[in-house]
Amino acid sequence: MPPSTRTRKQSSSRRVTAAGRKAALAAGANSAAGPSAVAGLPTPPYAQVKQYLKDALEAGLWAPGVQIPSEAELVAQFGVSRMTVNRALRELQDAGLITRLQGVGSFAAQLNRVSSTLTINDIQDEIRRRGHRHEARVHLKRAEAASAALAARLGLAPGATVFHTLIVHHEDGVALQCEDRYVNPACAPDYLSIDFTQQTPTHYLLDVAPLWEAQVAIEAALPTAQEAKLLGIARTDPCLIVVRGTVSRGVPVTRARLVHPGARYTLESQFKP
User: Fold this and answer.
1) CA dist list (Å): 162 to 30, 87, 151, 152, 173
2) Disulfide: which of 56, 233, 253, 264 matches 61 by Cβ 3.0-4.6 Å?
3) Which range marks the domain in which residue 172 is found?
4) Average pLDDT, consecutive stretches of 10 residues, N- to C-terminus, the chain (273 residues)
């Protein structure tokens, strides 16, 4: 290899290391960014910028809708090219974590949407979009001790206090959804003081604990005796049952069982490539 080529490669390696140190300091690390697990290579500069922004978003440094540092600011902070920063921002946008407006800047995304594969819908919004009347009837609203299984799902100790609500949502007077929900008090300490006849738990929780992760299971099954009674259906009527758990900034927020009479409800989704 000619000496001039070797010198250029060594200089490039030093620049990557410097950028890694800046990214680590910006993220609050105590040492330089270490090598990646692949063949001992340094972490690519765009990945360092992306990880810093992702960690800051997860930590709540920028609330949903708040503008994050500009491309020029990130270029100066990390000592990398504008193309490198643009790639990091583009991948965060593709993941649904930021929104970008040409000529304006980049903003922390509204985190009720997780990438392009999942949308957390509010039953009240669904009903109102159809031009119909929503009514919520609260059948249970209390603090209680968590079972071992529930505590494990919410990251709590067995017997720890959880908030529990049981609400039936009606569309034009017809029961459409039975919502049995448990909430981690650390994420929503005022949960039991909310009037859920006016605001749904989903809407409230998305405001106070922005969604970062969600796990959803959907099945066709029969309702429990209590669910059948609350929904005004027969115990043998099939239902669409959605079990959903959500996480905000690494902390489990809620576990909900949403039961819909199969003859009254259609699960809808939309996809655009």
Assistant:
1) 37, 42, 8, 12, 30
2) 56
3) 118-261
4) 41 37 38 40 86 88 88 94 93 86 84 50 86 96 96 95 98 95 97 96 91 86 96 95 91 95 74 44
Q: Nearest Cα to 177, choosing from 217, 131, 129, 139?
A: 139
pLDDT of residue 212: 81
What Rg do the C-alpha atoms of the chain give, in angstroms? 24
In a domain, 271, yes or no: no
The reply to whether 81 and 53 lie within a common domain is: yes
Whether 137 contacts 86, CB under 8 Å: no
CATH value at residue 98:
1.10.10.10
Which pLDDT value is given to residue 2? 44
CATH of the domain at 170: 3.40.1410.10
Biggest CA-to-CA distance, the chain: 83
Coarse DSSP helix, strand, coil percentages of the chain, rounded to the nearest 5 percent: 35, 30, 40
Q: Is the pTM value of this prediction over 0.85? A: no
Query: Under 8 Å CB-to-CB from 11, ≥6 apart: which residues?
Result: none
Find where tokens 């529930």 sit: 150
